Amino acid sequence: MLHSIATVSISGTLAEKIAVIAKAGFGGVEILESDLLSFPESPRKVGDMLRDYGLVCTAYQPFRDFEGMPDDLRQRTFDRMERKFDVAAEIGAELLFICSNVSPHALDDHARIVADFREAGDRASRRNMMVGFEALSWGRHINDHRDAWRVVRDADHPCVGLILDSFHSFARQVPSESIRKFDPAKIVLVQIADAPFLKMDELSWSRHFRCMPGQGDFPLVDYVGHLAEIGYDGPISLEIFNDRFRAASAATIAADGRRSLIFLEDQVRRRRGEAVLTPRVSTSGVEFIEFAASEEEGLQLAEMLKCVGFREAGRHKRKAVSRWRQGEINLIINSEAEGFAHAHDLLHGCSVCAIGVTTGDAIAALARAQALRMESFSQPVAPGEYAIPAVRGVGGSLIYFVDAKEREAIWREEFDEVKDADRNGECGLTRIDHIAQSMRLDETLTWLLYYASLFDVQKTPQLEIVDPLGIVQSQAVENADRSLRITMNGSSARDTLSARFLSHYIGAGVQHIAFATDDIFKAATRANANGANVLPMPAPYYDDLEAKFGLDPRLVARMREFNILYDREGDAEYFQFYLRAFSKRFFFEIVQRVGYDAYGAANAPIRLAAQSRFRDEELP
What integer pLDDT is reported at residue 72 of this predicted model? Predict the structure, then answer.
């Protein structure tokens, strides 16, 4: 299928849009009338640009308020159409896009509407063009793709076809199975848009909340799957209206759009037993988290890790790199004076520069990432070192694919074991529970698509977290056994914790790491004994906790003593405490889950308020 995108989907001038659409790898583009009218060059010049970039003009759109107009307005409507045909010919479009009438003058007369389209088809035929008809979900008389199909079917003209738009279908809750009754030869264009399910009028929903396939809630695999089953093989085009996208980089949004269609097509074909890409990456968890740090910062970070029970377990045989362990957790401190980690440290300071995930086939994982047009990464490796496949991740950091067959050998052959490491300070931390990344609000959907298309994960519902200084949007992706959990947090408010992190850190990145334990009180007791700088919580929180959940006062007293937060859903319980931030860049969280599968969102305002009290001293 030809992948196309409407120019309304991205920001910039028409020339800029065409350039980034071509660079993203699209084969077609729908030219929006408003983009053309605001462009200082002629339509013919736009057509030349499209040809120079090797792009097909999928459609010229929209032509509004056409069908069913009364006699006194009908001729003027066809006069407008002739002018649209002139412009379409100049830009090289063979399809004029007609959306259903919203005019109060429109007549609900099926025979009249069919006659209008027959005449439109005759006029298009004389120009070797087509007209396509789309049912707007807020159309006056035609707002269901089944009704638009009846018009096209009854017009029975070779130059009149049907245009489908997934948003309008799902907004009106039209069963996607109805597509199976259509003649695929009569479908001239399919527009695809995802969206969250919202209760609001269709026009506002459409104009502000559309998103790329995989970023919303619509069952698009089913929708496109029905099209594939009836044999449709024409253009698939994105038409996305979204306030965040219009504020974001056009190149990023165009790249997201292309990735979303590759991912969608892969899911559709895979359901039919046709392998297109290698499967989504299945992982058994986070193998390591790597920190970039100067020599001085590396020593400071090491002291902080000791306070929560980590011990130095290995030193790289050739590099200023150390391995810190506890339970199944591996943390790397990289203080090399050259290479990727050093460059990352110069830009961001001591921070997470890479995450390694364990997978059964690292080469296949890299192949999928490259097919999804993700940027791969490599740097020279010395003899005896492993070239671990990697791709760029959030904020320019790296994601390494660690092959499960090589993981033990990598640690054994690249690191010298530190013998007699002190285990007395261990806090009973077992594994990495989740990784929280902060980013600009307009980046959150980009990275949601990135993770959902690359890894075998599911997304959780988006939450609004109340920060004392604004609202933070938070969403997570998780694999089936929860060995990989990543939360993404974004805010448009300038002074929220997430926003201040971005400002201080100079971009998106890992803001905190949560470590799991089976005994939160043992972990807290040992961390306090080790001198950990635990984030203090307000006394009123604990005064309310006993009454809220009916907890034993002795349990509440222990939580108060160790600054432990608590949440419960049914019988499931969640305990958590936080350390104060390291150098205003990141912080650690310790959690215990008892059948609990969320992230303690109810406690987020308490935690954020506690951290905000230290904003002048540190930035958690």
Answer: 93
Residue 530, classified by CB atoms within 10 Å of its CB into exposed (0-12), middle (13-18) or buried (19+), is middle
For residue 503, what pLDDT band results from cuts at 50, 70 and 90? confident
Nearest-Å Rg of the Cα atoms of the chain is: 28
Question: Does 62 sit behind a cis peptide bond, omega within 30 degrees of 0 on the bond before it?
Answer: yes
For residue 442, what is the DSSP state? G
Q: Calculate the CA dihedral of residues 444, 450, 456, 459 and round it to 10 degrees.
A: 20
For the chain, list the domains and their CATH numbers: 3-271 (3.20.20.150), 283-417 (3.10.180.10), 429-612 (3.10.180.10)
CA 423, 350, 451, 567 torsion-angle sign: positive
Nearest to 53 by CA among 21, 6, 99: 21
pLDDT in tens, 289-312: 999 999 999 999 999 999 999 999
Give φ, ψ of 420 to 5 degrees.
60, 30
How far apart (Å, rounded) are the C-alpha atoms in residues 39 and 406? 56
Residue 227's Cα: distance from chain center in Å? 25
pTM value?
Answer: 0.94
Which CA distances in Å does 289 have to 331, 353, 398, 400? 5, 8, 10, 10
Nearest Cα neighbor of 615 from 570, 569, 584 is 584
What span, in angstroms and rounded, lies between the C-alpha atoms of 614 and 563?
Answer: 16
- Give the DSSP per-residue string, 150-181: HHHHHH--TTEEEEEEHHHHHHTT--GGGGGG
Residue 482 CA to residue 594 CA, distance in Å, equals 14
Q: What is the pLDDT of residue 119?
A: 98
